[in-house]
Predict the structure of Hypoxanthine phosphoribosyltransferase.
Amino acid sequence: MNNDIERILYSQEEIATACERLGKEITNDYQDKTPVVVSVLSGAVFITTDVLRQMDVYTQLAFIDVSSYNGGTASSGKVRLVTDITQDVADRDVLIIEDIVDTGRTLKYIIDLLKQRHAKSVRVCTLLDKPTGRVLEVKADYVGFEVPDEFVVGYGLDYKGEYRNLPYVGVLKPKIYLDK
């Protein structure tokens, strides 16, 4: 897998430092609250666990699975709910944790869904923010890194289901996804 990476953008150590910073920021903002943390499957599992371990507040954890990429390198433009959360979020503070905010379609879908369910508040934490890819206006409240407009994998991010387990975030060599 490492041979498929053009260059490392964020090392394991840099990601750990970012998760610690995000956990502290979230702890500060959620004192005396018990947010429902909604982790977006499958990519956000890594950042969710690492940020949660840095948070010093009570939380409840939920998982949601939505898809707009269908295994490719670009969003299909259509978001579909694969697995819904089971928690009732009415009158609850909700923190969505994402691996990357790119076009904004997935995130807007989830935010709108939670607001329709009368969440008291909805905030967003993401490891990576790619504003150059934005199609819909959405903003993360907590951002690990702003990422350039390149196809990145690792630390939860994938290409066709692979590379999620890399401990860093790297740029995938274009020959990997252009030749297939």
The beta strands are 5-10, 36-41, 60-67, 80-83, 93-101, 121-129, 142-146, 152-153, 169-172.
